[in-house]
Every structure is written in C-alpha cells, then in structure tokens.
Amino acid sequence: MSGYDLRSAIEHSVGHFWQESYGNLYPTLARMAEEQLVKLDPEDGSSGDRIRKVYRVTAAGRKALAEWLRRPVLPHVERNELLLKLFFGAQVGPKDSLAQVERSRAEAESLLAVLRLIDQEVRPARKDDPEFAYEHLSIRAGLIGLEAHLRWCDEAREALARLKPTTGSAKKGRSR
C-alpha cells in the first residue's frame, strides 16, 4: 500500500481505537524501509507525473510484527482532552462544561452507530474467518467502551445540572 492507502485502511479498520497522522506515518514508513521491514516499490501514479510509493512487508517485517505482537503492552495514561477540560471546568462554569459533555456524547453516539452497523453487517459475513474472531474483539471493546462513555455522559449531565453558574476563576486564592 501507499502511505495514503495505509492511512485510509487504518481509518476504516482500527480507526475507532488507533489514529495515525500522515506526519507520523510517512517518517515511520521511511524508517521501516531503512530497517528493511518494508520494501519500497515505486510505481507510476495514476495522477500524471507523480510517482506513487508502494510499500510491501518483507519477511523481516513479518517477523518483527510477530515479535511486537508477543511483547507485553506497557501501561500508559490515556490523554483525554474532555476530562482535562472538565477538571478545570470551574473556571468557565457548568454551562460550558455541559456543552463539552454534550458534544462528546453526540460524537460517541455517532461512532457507536457506525460500530453497531459494522458488527451487524460484517460479523455474519465473516463468521467463518478465523482472523475475524481477533478483529471482533476490538469492535466489542469499542462498543462496550462507547456504551460506558454514554452512561458517564448522562451522569456528568446530572452532576453539572446541580452546579451553580460561575464566572471566571471560581477558586480564587487556590491554585493547583
């Protein structure tokens, strides 16, 4: 695949839990080519003079992938901008914080609808595909995680509705 094709495949497969920018993808592909994990096969592009760079996984790349898949996952802290904004929400008050929660809820509902559609349409068609059992685990995690997020959004709505409006710095004299 080309870098463009790879990013598109990421968006349509693992995009509900893994995002990759072109700014990170192309340098990574170049590094992998240097390490001979992928092979670069320049092809004539369909858009005029432009040469399309197509990468193919090498045997060494497949071996490195298998080794990476066997390594334990390191614990990490997820970066969650919504939670960070809510943590400091007293600075703007419940109305603005509620707007953040509502936007997040709407996005989660949309993504949940997409994952449910994928689950309903893809699962029956691929039920005999041994690879799909593994892929389906990520779909289920997405479904369960989004359902939990929607429940949390409902709790956050209720909690924010009970708060009194504030203006500016609600905790004057107190710093974190």
Radius of gyration: 22 Å
Strand content: 5-15%
Order of helices and strands: HHEEHHHH
- Which ranges are low-confidence, i.e. pLDDT below 50, for 5 or more consecutive residues? none
SSE layout:
Elements: H1 3-13, H2 22-34, E1 38-44, E2 51-57, H3 59-70, H4 81-87, H5 94-125, H6 130-161
Antiparallel strand pairs: 1-2
Helix pairs in contact: 5-6
Model description:
This protein is mainly alpha-helical. The protein is built from 6 helices and 2 strands; from the N terminus they run ααββαααα. It has helices at residues 3-13, 22-34, 59-70, 81-87, 94-125, 130-161; strands at 38-44, 51-57. A two-stranded antiparallel sheet has the order 1-2. The longest helix is centred in the middle third of the chain and has 32 residues, at 94-125. The radius of gyration is 22 Å and the shape is elongated. The mean pLDDT is 88.
Brief account:
The protein has 176 residues and is mainly alpha-helical. It has helices at 3-13, 22-34, 59-70, 81-87, 94-125, 130-161, and strands at 38-44, 51-57.
What descriptive keywords fit this protein?
176 residues, mainly alpha, two-stranded antiparallel sheet, 6 helices, 2 strands, elongated
